[in-house]
Amino acid sequence: MSSNEQERLLCYNGEVLIFRLSKGDVAGKGPAEIPILQVRRMVFDRGARAFIQKSTGFFMLKEENSHLKIVCCNCVSDFRIGINLPYVMIQCNKKNTFRYVLLFLHSTNKFEKRLSFRLSHELKDGVRVLNGPLVLWKRAEKFYLISSLNGKVMTVSVNFSSVQWAGEIENLGMVLLGPKACFLSEEGCTQKLSKSDYAIWKTTFCVYSLENEEVISDAYIIPPAYSSVVTCVHVCATENVNNQLRMSLIALTRKNQLISFQNGTPKSVCQLPFGDPCAVQLMDSGGGELFIVSFKSNDICAVWKKNFQVAAKWEKISSVLIDDFIGAGTEQVLLLFQDSLNSDCLSSFTVTDLGNINYSVSYVGLASIQELKQHLLLKEKIISKYWKILINLIQGKDESTSAAEKLLNMFFFKAHLVTLCGKEESPVCTFEEKIPDDFQDSERLIEKIWYRVIDDSLVVGVKTTSSLKLSLNHVTLSLVMDQAHSSSCRLIKCHNRVIKLSRDFPPASRSVPCEVGSEKDEESSAGEQASEKECVQVITAVTPFSPLLAFIDFCCIVLLQIRERENGNSSEDHYVWCGRLFISLEDLSSRKYLLTFPKKKPIEHVEDLFALLTAFNRACFQITSPTYSLTSMKTWLLEYMKCEVIQEFPEICFCKRPGSFYGTLFNWKQRTPFEGILIVYSRNQTVLFQCLHNLIGALPINCFLKKLKSGSEDFLIDHLASSLEKELVILGSLSSALVEVENNLVQSCEASKEKSSGVVAALSDRKENIHLYRKEFQREKTQTLGTNLKVSGALYRELTLKLAEVQLRSDLAAQKLAGL
Predict the structure, then answer these.
(1) Dihedral, CA atoms, 218, 221, 227, 229, nearest 10 degrees?
(2) How far apart are CA 293 and CA 285, in angstroms?
(3) φ, ψ for residue 196 (rounded to 5)?
(4) pLDDT at residue 418 above 70?
(5) What are the boundaries of the region Disordered (predicted)?
(6) Contacts of 413 (CB under 8 A, 6+ apart)
(7) Tens of pLDDT along 733-785?
(8) Do the beta carbons of residue 293 and residue 254 sit within 8 Å?
(9) DSSP secondary-structure letter at 96?
(10) How far from each other are the two terminal CA atoms of the chain, in whole angstroms?
C-alpha cells in the first residue's frame, strides 16, 4: 500500500470489508485527481483456507486538492429501517476547514451519504458514531454531538471527563456512561481527606440519557474506589429495579486487570498478561463466552467468562475482528498479524474459536520448489499409511474400532488432498449423477446415489445393479461428515434399509415386504417367478435432518460396506466409495429435493417412493376372518381410502384421501380368501391408529388383527425351507459318488417344500406345520445317512461345521415361525 493510500478493516455478517481510500485511477473508475473510496467484500473459503474476494464497490469523493483521511469505520443501526449497516467516516481538510462525511454501505455495494457537516477544528481520537447515526466527540473538556435528523451540533450538559461506553438501553434510548467530576474541593470538604482519597472521591460514574438530557443513575455502576483507574467499560446487561438502573459490566483498569462488576460490586478479577489494555469485546464461541482484550502494544488475549482465566494470548497483531467467518453458527476471532513485507492485509491470519475450529495461515512469499516437494512427500506418506490400514482391514487382520476410524479418516483425506501442481481433479459425485469409473469396482456395482428430505428426516439412497445380491445382514450404508475445518471425520448415526421391488410383478406370486431384526429392515417383494433383471434394489440410510441444518453447506461421504462369506465360515469385507453429497440451504429453500405430494401426480420419481418406504413408520399386520372372506379389503383401499396403485410397482398403493391420511402407503397380499397380510407405511403413529380404526369398521365380524414383530410368515417359511434344503445338500456332498443322489434329494426337497406350502396354506395350526417339516427332514436325513459313505477326516470335519451352521439358521427360523 502506497503512502497515498489508507486502509481500514471491518467485519459484517461473516464477511471482511476492506475500505481503501486512495488518489488515482482505480480500475479505470475515474481520473487521477479524484479521490476514490474502494470496498472489497472478502469471504473465507474453507477449502482454500484463505479469504477470497466476493465483490467490490467504489465511491468518488469530489474533493479535489483536499487532504483526506479515514476517521473510523464500524456498524451502527440506521433509525429509518432499524438494521445495522457498515459505515465509514471520511475527513476532508481544505484551507483549515474540516468537512466530515459519513457513508453507509448497502448490500449492493452502493455508498449512501448519510451525514455531512463542517467544523472549524479537527476531530481527534475518541470520535464515536452511535446508532441513528449520531456522531459524538470531545473538545476543550466538553462533549458534542450531531444527529442525522437535524444536522445541528449540540452540547452534552454533563461534565464527563471521558465516555467509557455508549449504547441503547430498553425504555431509556441512547445513553452515555462515564466518570464525571463531583466538584469536591479540598477546602469545602467537612472531613479531612488525603490527596489519594480526594483523587478517588472527586469522580463518580454516571449514566446520562441523550433523549431526556439528564443523569438517570449514578449508583450501582462502579464503586468510587475504582473510578480513577478504569479505562474501558463494556456493559453486558441492564435492568430496572424499583426505578433504579442496575448494571452488569466488565472494566479494564490501569492496573492491567479485567474486573467484573455486578450492580456496583466487584465479582471477578483477572490479571492480564500484557500492559495498557485499551479495548474489550465479547465472543460467543459455542463452547463458552470469552472476552477478547486488546492492548496498546498490539497484543491480544482471550479470557474465559465462566472462570476469568486467560485462555490464549497472541503478540504482534495488527487487527482483531469477531464474527462467524466460516458459517458454523457460532463466532470466531480473526487475528491479523503484522507483516511489513506484504501489502495484503489478509495474508497472515488465524481464525479460531479456541476449540475445534482453527485455521492459521502465515505468509511466506514465493514458495520454493523444495517446500512444494516436501509438502507432496508428506501427503504421499499419509496416503501410503492409510492404504495399508485399508488393506489390513479388508483382509481381516485388524477389525478393531480404531482401525475402522482410521479407515474413515483415510477416505476423508482422499476427499481433501489437493493437487498442488496443476488443477484439482474433481472427486465429487453429485446426487442423481452417474458414478465416475474411479469410484467403483470393475462390476459397476453402483448405478447412482440420491437424497430426499421428508419432514425432519434426510434419506440417502444408493441404487445397485442387479448383479449385486444383497441382504441386510451383510451390507451397511454409512454417512460420514465431511468438515473442511476438521482433520478427522465422524460417522452420522443412521438407520439402514435394503429395499427390493420388482416391476410388472405377477399378482399371484407377489410376496410381502418383511422386516428382519430391530436395527435394520429388509423389504423384498420379489417372488420366485421374477427374474433378477426385473428387481430394483436400493440401499438407504435415514437420519434426523435438524442437527445438520447448522451447516449452511452440508457435505457427507457415502460409503457402502459389503460383507461376503467365503467357504461358509469366513467373511471378507469390501468397501465401495459411492461419492459425496452436497446439501445447501438454497436447494432446500427452492424445494428442489424436498419431498412433497402434488395432487395431480403424487409420486413423480422412483426415488420418492423409496424415500417414503425408508422414512415412514412400517407396521405389518396379519388379518384373519374365520367365517367371512376378506373381499372388503380391496373396497376399503380403493374406495374408502382413495388409494391409487403405483403403475411401476403395483404391489404398493398410495393413499390420496385428504387430510392426515394423504401420502400413506399400503401393501396388501391376500394369501387365502380368509387370511392376508397388510403392511402400512405411515407418517406417524397417530395416522397408523386412524387407519386401523377405520379398517376395523370395514372388516367383517369376528376378524382378528395380529401385529407381526419378526416379519411375514412367508419369508420365514421360505427361509426355513431354504435352510433345510442346504442341510440336505451338505449331507449329499459327503461323497463324490453321491452326486446323482444329491440332485435327487434337492429335487425331492423342492417338491416336498411345495407340497408342505400347500399344507401350510390350508391348516391353521402353525406348530403342526413345523412338525411336518421336521418329520420330512428326518426321513430324508435317515435315507442319506444309510448310504455307505466314506470320506476323509478333514473333509468330514469341514462338512460337519457347515451342517451345524445351517442347522442353527433353520432352528432360529423355526423358532420364530412357531412363535407366530
Answers:
(1) -160
(2) 15
(3) -70, -40
(4) no
(5) 507-528
(6) 382, 383, 386
(7) 654 434 444 455 555 555 554 544 444 444 445 555 566 666 776 776 666 55
(8) no
(9) T
(10) 83
Which SS3 state, helix, strand or coil, does residue 744 take? helix
Nearest to 43 by CA among 73, 68, 69, 13: 13
CA angle 220, 225, 228 (to 5 degrees): 105
By the 10 Å C-beta count (0-12 exposed, 13-18 middle, 19+ buried), 228 is classed as middle
Classify burial at 479, counting beta carbons within 10 Å of its beta carbon; exposed 0-12, middle 13-18, buried 19 or more. buried
Pairwise CA distance, residues 127 & 73, whole Å: 11
DSSP codes of every residue in 31-54: -TTSEEEEEEEEEEETTTTEEEEE
pLDDT digits 0-9 by tens, 514-567:
333 333 444 443 333 434 446 788 899 999 887 777 766 778 888 888 876 655
Half-sphere exposure of 242 (CA within 13 A, CB side): 1
Task: Dump the DSSP string for 686-709.
Answer: HHHHHHHHHHHHHSPTT-EEEE-S
If 0-12 CB within 10 Å is exposed, 13-18 middle and 19+ buried, where does residue 311 land? middle
In 3D space, the residue among 206, 210, 217, 313 whose CA is nearest the CA of residue 258 turns out to be 313
* CA–CA dist 720, 729 (Å, integer): 14
Residues facing 535 on adjacent strands = 502
Q: What is the C-alpha separation between 237 and 795, in angstroms, rounded?
A: 82
Burial of 135 (0-12, 13-18, 19+ CB in 10 A): buried
What pLDDT does residue 413 have? 44
